[in-house]
Amino acid sequence: MGTLVVYFSLDGDTEFIAKKIAETLDAEIIALNIRKKYPAKGFFKYFCGGKSVLFGEKPKLTNKKINLSRYETMIIGTPVWAGSYTPPIKSFISQYKIRDKRIALFACHGGGGTEKCFAKLKKALPGNKFIGEIDYIGPKKNPEESSAQTIKWAKSLSAE
To answer: What confidence tens digit (pLDDT) does each residue in 48-106 have?
Structure first.
């Protein structure tokens, strides 16, 4: 059984970490894509993302159907928006029955909210074994340090 890294990234930080994890673990990787894109800059980036979280939106994913039975371990990555995971991750969780998996979580943020984000993700994913979590503040700003931290964390997951 394999490992899947699934993530949503708006400005590239989460994608940067997801790719490093997938490379380290020789895992498959899927970026969640949505039909209607969020603004990537300025005030509306935060306004639209926060509004989407607060209203519980589930944007339409444009990815092909994923056969989750092929994976024993899933690593889920998200930016933190309004103290929560992103609506595309919410769409993914609601679209698939995710049970009996080993799950690790990672989040990228600008300065907080990860505890609430991880608690909400765990609540949304009952019936799974959580094997790790890690968060990053702007990992692309210090790529060498972030990469080293990610490699060490990813390798620790296979020991679980």
So the answer is: 566 566 666 788 899 999 999 999 999 999 999 788 899 999 999 999 989 999 999 99
Is the per-residue pLDDT at 47 higher than 90? no
Residue 152: which CATH number? 3.40.50.360
User: Could you give the CA distance from residue 154 to residue 148 in angstroms, rounded to a whole number?
Assistant: 10
CA neighbours closer than 13 Å in the CB half-sphere of residue 5:
23
Residue-range definition of the domain harbouring residue 120: 2-157
Q: What is the pLDDT of residue 35?
A: 82
The residue type found at 81 is W
Q: Cβ contacts of residue 7 below 8 Å, gap of 6+?
A: 14, 15, 17, 18, 29, 30, 31, 32, 76, 77, 78
Question: Which residues are bridge partners to 4 per DSSP?
Answer: 28, 74
* Euclidean distance between CA atoms 24 and 3, whole angstroms: 11
State the pTM of this model: 0.92
Q: How far apart are the first and last CA of the chain?
A: 15
What's the domain count of the chain? Answer: 1
Query: Which residue, among 56, 73, 53, 100, has the nearest Cα to 6 in the 3D structure?
Result: 73
- Give 3-state DSSP helix, strand, coil % of the chain, rounded to 5: 40, 25, 35
